[in-house]
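Hi U.,

Before I forget, here's the chain from the pilot set. I'm dumping it here mostly so it's searchable later in email.
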Amino acid sequence: MTQVDMVAVDELVREIARALVDEPEAVEVLSVQRDENTVLKLRVAPGDVGKVIGKQGRTARSVRTILGAVSMKLHHRYTLDILEEDDEE
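Structure:
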């Protein structure tokens, strides 16, 4: 997997989140490389956390489904963590 692929996946998650929230400038995606996978840590403004998670987690589940499809395509596992305002990086 190339660095370009990782940047593209980060950007994909960032753009999806920006489309969902009221404060798109507050969206941050941090990529943490692990042995077998990459964890994407999504941080949004405190008032937008509910919009990213959605009712009963449906929106978050949908974004994770998209990441699952990307994982299959790139042969590398991606996981998404949505950080609350009190979570540490």
